[in-house]
Amino acid sequence: QVQLVESGGGLVQAGGSLRLSCAASEIMIGWSTMGWYRQVPGKQRELVALITGGGSTNYAEFAKGRFTISRDNAKNTVFLQMNSLKPEDTAIYYCNTGSKSLAWGQGTQVTVSS
Question: Could you report the per-residue pLDDT of 20-35, keeping only the tens digit for each?
């Protein structure tokens, strides 16, 4: 069974940084477009960033200039470097394919204090 395991979240002060990781098991993400998403309780899950198999990236407006998505296909892992964090970035962060075709993992909680 395909599993996506997110990690790296935590509690950080505004202006701080976190690096999230997403490891995929039972499937090679290979050349798949992968993405990071986030969800605040009571709100819809929203796209944060995408990265194609070739390394092209696309970011939500709120992530531009602060977040960087990357991938290591050899390690079957996708990363999200988040800098200059704001309290409004507080959410559970998930990874999935660009088409959200895999079962969602547990996500990783990011909490940014003011």
Answer: 999 988 777 778 899 9
Q: What is the mean pLDDT of residues 41-70?
A: 96
**Residue 54 near residue 71 (C-beta atoms within 8 A):** no
What is the arithmetic mean of pLDDT over 95-101? 93
**CA torsion sign, 2 to 48 to 18 to 114?**
negative
Q: Please give the Cα distance from 34 to 84 (Å, whole number).
A: 23
| Torsion sign, CA atoms 71, 77, 83, 85 | positive
- Mean pLDDT across the stretch 6-25? 96
Give phi and psi for 33, each to the nearest 5.
-70, 130
Residue the block writes with tokens 């390394």: 55
In angstroms, what CA-CA distances link 84 with 13, 64, 88, 92? 9, 11, 11, 17
The total of other beta-carbon atoms located within 10 Å of residue 97's CB is 16
Confirm if 63 and 48 have CB atoms less than 8 A apart: yes
